[in-house]
Target: Thiamine biosynthesis protein ThiS
Amino acid sequence: MKLQVNGEPEELENGITLSAFLLSKGIDPQTVVVERNADIPDRSTWDTLTLTDGDVLEIVRFMGGGQA
Model:
């Protein structure tokens, strides 16, 4: 199946969940917010939320920082 992830095309196996996708990319799900098709799914659903062909994902990683 084909997705768009942060503006880039991505091909994935069918039936992968959002959590499994993030882990396959080496992304700690606790450090990101994900928008799927202009909606922000509740984090509690990520283990069962199956991605589908044509989904558009935006993944935003939390960054620490501040003034030194």
Remarks:
- The chain has a mean pLDDT of 93.
- The longest strand covers residues 56-61.
- Residues 2-61 form a domain with the Ubiquitin-like (UB roll) fold (CATH 3.10.20.30).
